[in-house]
């Protein structure tokens, strides 16, 4: 066997998208090499702190300040802890140009499984409106697909991954193939009734989560055990991760090769054939680089990393990417805007408490501009993620009175945070630094991404409306806060290689396939032409499965 | 298929290309492991250590469950200040200990660690009320250190509170009367 036919396909990245690509392509008969820049993490065996109490975790699971300052100064915005440290990027070893351009938090994983190990697991279908608004409002570029193109693929991935939630029949939030929802607690049920009565047209519904409420014995996975320690890795396989779900499936075919510590710097390209010929990989441990050929490449390195790899695949002697014929590569970068929080006390029900720790609670779906512009001063909308809970009391002072005072629980509280849609702007862009490179020789990413008037007005509205709704529902001491909106902070960064019908205006076509290379598919967040206001990972899964199906059909037809 | 030209583009050889501090530091860098051994340097004098021990027990005393000393809170505080906190975080603690020490010697003619529990409580109260130099700042931070150390210790998690490693179920209307102890997270 020669090197040239060792693999039929290379998948770059092993997160939500990469894992699905590997699963689908291997199951369809392809020999696949999956590469990840991070360290190897095996399901279960490498979840070092799964189930452990704080005293069995280094530094009591409180990230030491000097370590944050030296090595995790970006990751600290993404919930890194001693128990999850190895799943995160080391910001010192693998930097971007964070001290140039506009402030952006590029929060990255550092292990096989990518962000699937450490994600928030909120899983929503995007709506018909989400795929149509660009065209109707003449914003950005029209999506080359519609909801109906994706609906069967949503069903396909949901059934396998396991998504819990409730059927609501909301046009702005289509239902998934649900397992039963995580229960609401007594205070949330109370709030749901009051909020929906006092704020007509608005809903408070169960969280939709890739945390299972039913076992999947065929996959060796158990339902959620209500530990709420997901970010350390879950040996029960109760939440969707590459390790628990897609990697075992891909491995079971016998056609997967997985390489950790494999940094992809760029794609090799044949301009005459208009094909990707291979992937250039640097071994993170030895620094040795090699080019691995492949007939088919799935780029799933994450929205920004895939964009970086595309931008760094340059026509010799120029600064221009092979994949930037349209001039749109690196542009229209978006992230959900958030850091608006509203909270208050829920009176009564103090005879009840929560037993067990849920990994997610309730959601207030978007209500602004649903089904058309409402004249509220901004386009699109936002939703809120929240929960009701009782914390232990926190008395002042010291001594036995304080200690024993902490043995009871405070009243019920409810808190929620808004996530808003960011519009695509041409000059919200990322670029390669002209002269600074990382330790693998890859030019550093520079971010020039800011939130604009539409997003900021939206968050003002989210704060005002959130307060109004909670007060009207009967909460007391309602308070709100608004913190700095730093793009990237929501870890929902998307765009950079958007899909579109016209090769002059987009990097990818409606199959997530590069206009400039028919054997290259980019199926992570880079392809998004807009970002909805709901969490994106489920849509990455559906788009990846759909693209893999198309790619294999084209391969079999000899078209690529 | 190793590209020999590319093989030179390895970790070390690229550093001539740019001068960017994090990259230079990354040259010899490995992913750091959190140090869980003894404090890398002594934060406290013997006298200060004795005082930290005594005061931590006054903040969370032994009652029907063990207190801060049994939970090894003093060692946690010294370790945290030595290796897990920023260097400047030591100053308000040390200043507060010294202020308490001075006040004890003035009022009670003994080292604060040797004072009676009632006298130590009086000294802590002075600090809490800002009646000692740097007292209020010391009290807030020291109290937070003791609480954190205690409720993340084995005693705090399993004796003072109750830890459910695998709850298995979620009940959102669990009768409070069935709760024996606050649940650790």
TrEMBL record, chain A:
Chain coiled-coil ranges: none
Keywords: FAD, Flavoprotein, Oxidoreductase
Short name of one Pfam family: GMC_oxred_N
GO molecular function: flavin adenine dinucleotide binding; oxidoreductase activity, acting on CH-OH group of donors
Domain Glucose-methanol-choline oxidoreductase N-terminal per the UniProt entry, residue ranges: 10-336
Alphabetical list of Gene3D superfamilies matching this protein: FAD/NAD(P)-binding domain (3.50.50.60)
Annotated ranges, domain Glucose-methanol-choline oxidoreductase C-terminal: 424-543
Family matches, as InterPro entries: FAD/NAD-bd_sf, GMC_OxRdtase_N, GMC_OxRtase_C, P2Ox-like
Cofactor(s) for this UniProt protein: FAD
Family stated for the protein in its record: Belongs to the GMC oxidoreductase family.
Protein known as: Choline dehydrogenase
Species name: Sphingopyxis indica
UniProtKB/TrEMBL annotation, chain B:
InterPro entries: Gluconate_2DH_su3
One Pfam family, short name: Gluconate_2-dh3
Domain of life assignment: Bacteria
Record-given protein name: Gluconate 2-dehydrogenase subunit 3
């Amino acid at each position: 066997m020669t090197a040239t036919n060792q693999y039929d396909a290379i998948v770059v990245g092993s997160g939500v998208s990469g894992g699905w690509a590997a699963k689908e392509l291997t199951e369809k008969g392809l020999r696949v090499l999956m590469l990840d820049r991070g360290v190897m993490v095996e399901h279960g065996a490498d979840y070092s702190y799964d189930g452990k109490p704080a005293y069995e975790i280094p530094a009591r699971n409180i990230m030491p300040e000097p370590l944050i300052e030296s090595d995790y100064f970006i990751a600290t915005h993404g919930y890194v802890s001693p128990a999850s440290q190895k799943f995160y990027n080391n910001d010192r070893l693998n930097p971007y140009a964070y001290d140039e351009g506009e402030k952006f938090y590029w929060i990255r994983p550092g292990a096989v499984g990518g962000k699937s190990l450490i994600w928030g697991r909120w899983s929503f279908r995007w709506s018909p409106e989400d795929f149509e608004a660009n065209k109707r409002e003449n914003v950005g570029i029209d999506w080359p697909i519609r909801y109906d193109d994706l609906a069967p693929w949503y069903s396909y991935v949901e059934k396998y991954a396991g998504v819990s939630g409730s059927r609501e029949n909301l046009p702005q939030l289509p239902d998934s193939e649900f397992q039963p929802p995580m229960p609401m607690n007594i205070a949330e049920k109370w709030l749901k009734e009051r909020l929906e009565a006092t704020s007509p047209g608005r809903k408070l519904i169960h969280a939709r989560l890739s945390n299972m409420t039913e076992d999947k014995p065929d996959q060796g996975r158990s339902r959620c055990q209500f530990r709420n320690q997901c970010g350390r890795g879950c040996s029960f396989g109760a939440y969707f991760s590459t390790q628990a779900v897609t990697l075992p499936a891909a491995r079971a075919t016998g056609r997967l090769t997985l390489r950790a510590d494999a940094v992809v710097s760029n794609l090799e390209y044949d301009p005459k054939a208009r094909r990707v010929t291979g992937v250039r990989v640097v071994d993170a441990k030895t620094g040795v680089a090699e080019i691995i050929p492949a007939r088919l490449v799935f780029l799933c390195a994450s929205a920004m990393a895939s964009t970086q790899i595309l931008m760094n695949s340059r026509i010799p002697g120029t600064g221009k990417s092979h994949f930037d014929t349209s001039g749109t590569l690196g542009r229209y970068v978006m992230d959900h805007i958030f850091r608006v929080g509203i909270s208050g006390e829920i009176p009564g029900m103090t005879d009840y408490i929560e037993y067990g720790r849920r990994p997610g609670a309730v959601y207030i779906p978007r209500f602004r501009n649903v089904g058309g512009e409402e004249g509220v001063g901004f386009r699109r909308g936002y939703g809120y993620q929240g929960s009701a809970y009782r914390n232990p009391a926190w008395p002042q002072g010291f001594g036995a009175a304080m200690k024993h005072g902490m043995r009871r629980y405070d009243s019920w509280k409810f808190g929620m945070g808004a996530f808003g849609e960011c519009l695509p702007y041409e000059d919200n862009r990322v670029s390669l630094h002209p002269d600074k490179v990382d330790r693998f020789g890859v030019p550093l990413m520079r971010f020039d991404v800011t939130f604009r008037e539409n997003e900021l007005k939206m968050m003002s509205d989210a704060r005002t409306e959130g307060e109004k709704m909670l007060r009207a529902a009967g909460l007391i001491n309602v308070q709100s806060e608004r913190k700095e909106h730093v793009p990237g902070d929501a870890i929902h960064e998307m765009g950079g290689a958007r899909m579109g019908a016209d090769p002059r205006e987009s990097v990818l076509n409606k199959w997530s396939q590069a206009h400039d290379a028919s054997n290259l598919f980019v199926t992570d967040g880079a392809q998004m032409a807009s970002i909805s206001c709901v969490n994106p990972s489920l849509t990455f899964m559906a788009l990846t499965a759909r693209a893999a199906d198309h790619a294999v059909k084209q391969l079999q037809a000899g078209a690529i | 298929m190793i590209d020999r030209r590319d093989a030179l583009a390895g970790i070390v050889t690229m550093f001539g290309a740019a001068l960017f501090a994090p990259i230079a530091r990354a040259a010899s860098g490995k992913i750091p492991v959190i140090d869980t051994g003894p404090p890398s340097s002594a934060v406290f004098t013997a006298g200060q250590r004795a005082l930290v021990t005594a005061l931590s027990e006054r903040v969370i005393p032994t009652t029907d469950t063990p207190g801060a000393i049994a939970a090894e809170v003093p060692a946690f505080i010294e370790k945290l200040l030595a290796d897990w906190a920023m260097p400047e975080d030591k100053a308000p603690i040390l200043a507060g200990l010294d202020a308490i020490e001075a006040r004890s010697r003035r009022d009670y003619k003994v080292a604060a660690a040797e004072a009676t529990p009632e006298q130590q409580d009086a000294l802590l109260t002075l600090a809490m009320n800002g009646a000692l130099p740097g007292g209020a700042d010391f009290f807030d931070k020291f109290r937070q250190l003791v609480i954190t150390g205690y409720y993340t210790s084995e005693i705090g998690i399993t004796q003072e509170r109750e830890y459910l490693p695998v709850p298995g179920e979620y009940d959102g209307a669990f009768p409070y009367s069935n709760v024996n102890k606050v649940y650790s997270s």
